[in-house]
Amino acid sequence: MSFFSWAPRKTAAARRADTARHIRAATKAGTPLSPVAIEGRTIARTYWGKAWCDNLERYRDFAYRLERGRSYVRSGSVIDLRIDAGTVHAKVSGSEVYAISIAVDAVPAEHWRALQRDCAGGIGSRVDLLGGKLSDAVMARLCADRTGLFPPPSAIRFTCSCPDYAIMCKHVAAVMYGVGARLDRAPELLFTLRGVAIDDLVAAALSESPVTRPTSSRVLASDGLAAMFGIELAEPAAGRPAAQPRKAKAATSPKPRVEAVRSKQRPPVVKKSVTTSRRLRARAVRKSK
User: Fold this and answer.
1) Using CB atoms within 10 A of its CB, is residue 188 exposed (0-12), middle (13-18) or buried (19+)?
2) Report field, pTM of the whole predicted structure over 0.70
3) Cβ neighbour number for residue 120 with a 10 Å cutoff
4) What is the helix (H) or strand (E) element at residue 171, kind and residue range?
C-alpha cells in the first residue's frame, strides 16, 4: 500500500495462509496467540454469542463495515483476541498485522440494580444463566436495548493501527464479531467485559425470589412432601390397604345381668303348714297297714 492507494484485496484463502504463518511465528517466539476459529459461515452458535452479534447489528452506527468484518473473522484473520474487564485487545491479519483496542464502559449502577430487581425469582442457577436457559421474559430483559448487558454504541470506543479513519474499520468489525464467537466458548466473559459479577445477579435473584409459607399447621400430604424435596415416596404395598383411623365406639348402656332376669321369671314358693304335713304322714301309715 502506498500513500495514495490501497494494497490489492487479498482472497480468503490468502488471509488464512497469512493467519497460519503468523500463529506459527508467534508460537515459535514463545508468545502464543488466542485466535478466533470459525467453522463454516456461522459466527456464533450459542445463545449469548448470537445475542452479542444481534446487538451489534442492531445499531446503524456500525452498519457500514460489518459485512467486511464478517468476511475477515470467517477467514480466520483475527489471530489474537483477549477479553478483560472493560477492554478487548486483538490482532488482525490484513495487509499487515494490525493491533486493535476496544474500550467498553461498565454497566451503569442504576441499570445493574434494575436488572437484579427485574430478574428476581427468574434465575435458578449460574448454569441456567450462562446456558441461556431462562424464561423468555428474563432473557429479553437481560438483552434489552441500552439497558441490558450489551453495550450501546455510546459505551464503545475503538482504536486500530490501520490507516483507515472510519468510525469502525473492517478490522474492528472483525474483532467485534470475534467477541461473539468467543462468548460461545466462555459466556461469562460478557459479565467480565461489562464490569459486573454474574454471581451478584444470581444471588440477588435467589434472595428476592418469593417464598411460599404454609398457611396451616396440618401435616403435608405425601405428594406435597415429594414436590417440596424432589423425591418419590414409596407407594403402599400391593394388596395391603392403607391404615384407616379408628372410629370411637359409641357409648352404650350396660346389659342387665342374666341372673337378675332369670330370678324375675321364677314362680313364688308355696309354704305348707305343719298341720297339713302331719295329716299326710298319718294317711300314709294307714295305707301301709
Assistant:
1) middle
2) no
3) 16
4) helix 170-185
Strands 87-93 and 78-84, by their bridges, are antiparallel
**Residue 30: C-alpha distances to residues 23, 27, 36, 135, 211 (Å):** 11, 5, 19, 46, 55
Whole-angstrom Cα distance, residue 137 to residue 131?
15
Q: Is the per-residue pLDDT at 30 higher than 90?
A: no
CA distance 35 to 56: 20
Burial group, residue 118, by CB count within 10 angstroms (0-12, 13-18, 19+): middle
Higher pLDDT, 158 or 221: 158
What pLDDT band is residue 195 in, cutting at 50, 70 and 90? very high
Query: What are 40-65's pLDDT values in tens digits?
Result: 889 999 999 999 999 998 887 677 77
**Pairing status of strand 87-93 against strand 97-104:** antiparallel
Nearest to 134 by CA among 142, 49, 149, 178: 142
CA distance 152 to 61: 10
Per-residue model confidence (pLDDT) at position 111: 95
Largest CA distance in the chain: 184
DSSP state letters, 54-79: HHHHH-GGGTTTHHHHHHHHHTT-EE
Decide if 38 contacts 44 (C-beta within 8 A): no
Residue 210 pLDDT exceeds 50: no
Q: Which long-range contacts (CB under 8 A, 24 or more apart) does 33-39 make?
A: 33/79, 33/80, 33/91, 34/80, 34/81, 34/82, 35/76, 35/78, 35/79, 35/80, 35/81, 36/73, 36/76, 36/78, 36/81, 36/178, 36/181, 36/182, 37/76, 37/181, 38/73, 38/74, 38/76, 38/181
